[in-house]
C-alpha cells in the first residue's frame, strides 16, 4: 500500500549568495553540456534520522540551513521547507514501494513561460530547487532537483557536501579547507569543434519531452521502485566468476573487470531476463539490447580538467549486445566483458566519437531497449553529513520516469553497491526473484 504523505509548506523562499559576493556573469555552454539539454533534471532525496521538533526546526535548523546555503552558493542558486505527516519509518522499509510516494519530497522546478528577446524565442530554465522536509521528532529529508545542463552528478554532490559542511560547522567559509570549485568554462578545450556538431544535432531534436508535466506524471502510474544490494562478497564473487568464465572461453583474462562493471552487468542481465519472463520471450534473439553509462573526464591527461571543476565533464558510452546472448549460462560474463571493453577503450581517448554522442543516443533510444545508469558509488552520497549522522536512505528519484538504474555505494558495508530500479510491479517482482536467485548461485561458486 502506498504511503500517503500530507506535506504542509512551512516556508517558501529564495536563497541567494550574500550581496556583492559574486560577480554578475554568464557561463557559456561547453560541448559536455549540450547532451544534457535533452535530459530530465537530477532528483535526489537524502533521509536522516534526527529527533527534531517543529519548533526547533523553524527557530534553529531552518535559519541555519538557509544561511549555510547562501554561503555555499557564493562558492558554487529556491529553497522550500516543509513539514510532512507521513510515517518516516515507511520510507525506510524494504521491498517494493509505490514510485509516487517519495515525489512530494522533491521540490518542483517551475518552468517559466518563454519570452521574446531580440526577435528570438528565449526559454528560461531554473537551475536548482531544494526542499527540506521535517518528519517531527523522527527525521529530516533533503530533496534536490538540479538541472543537468549546469553540472553533472559529481559537481552536484560536491555542492551538497559543501552545504552540509557549512551547516554543520556554523563557522562560515573558514571551514572550507579543500580546494575551491573551478567554474571557469575555459578549462574545457574544444579543438575539434565538437560543440558546433552537437548543437546542430540538438536543434533537430526539439523540446525535451520531460517538460510535459502531464506526460511525466503519467509515467509514474503503476510504477513501483525498490533498492537491491550487492555486498562486497557478492562483488568479489562476481569478479572471480566473470574472470574464470572469460579465461575458459577465450583463454585470456577480461580486459577490464571492476565493481562498477560487474554490478552493471549483473543488473543488466537481470533486467533483460525479467523482460523476457513477463513477455514470455516475445523478443527475438537477434534484437539488440543497449546499455549506456558515463565516464568522468576530470583529471585525464588529454583534456586536463581539474577534479574540482563545477560543470559537466562526462563522456557518454554505449554498449550493444544481441538479446540471445543474455539467454545462456554465461550471460553475465558476456555482459561484463562488453562493458569492460568499452571502459578500456576510454584509455585510448575519452573524446573519441564525442561528435556522435547525440546521434548514438537517438539511435539506441528508438529501439526501446536501452538501460542507462544514473549515479555512481564514487559519489559517496552516504558521506553527506549535516551533523545528523549519515543518511539512512539515498534515492535518485528521476529513475521513476526515465527508466534508468541507479548505483550508489552501500550504506552499511564498504565495497558493497546499492542498485535502484523503478518498473511495473510485474517486472520488478520478476527482477527481484531473478536478482536473488543470481546472488544465491554466486554463493555456490
TrEMBL record:
Source domain of life = Eukaryota
Output the Pfam families linked to this UniProt entry: Transferase
Q: Which InterPro entries match?
A: CAT-like_dom_sf (IPR023213), Plant_metabolite_acyltrans (IPR051504)
Write out the GO MF terms: acyltransferase activity, transferring groups other than amino-acyl groups
Listed A to Z, the keywords are: Acyltransferase, Transferase
Query: Which PANTHER family does the protein's record reference?
Result: PTHR31625
Q: What is this protein called?
A: Anthocyanin acyltransferase
Name its species: Kalanchoe fedtschenkoi (Lavender scallops)
- Tell me the lineage of the source organism: Eukaryota, Viridiplantae, Streptophyta, Embryophyta, Tracheophyta
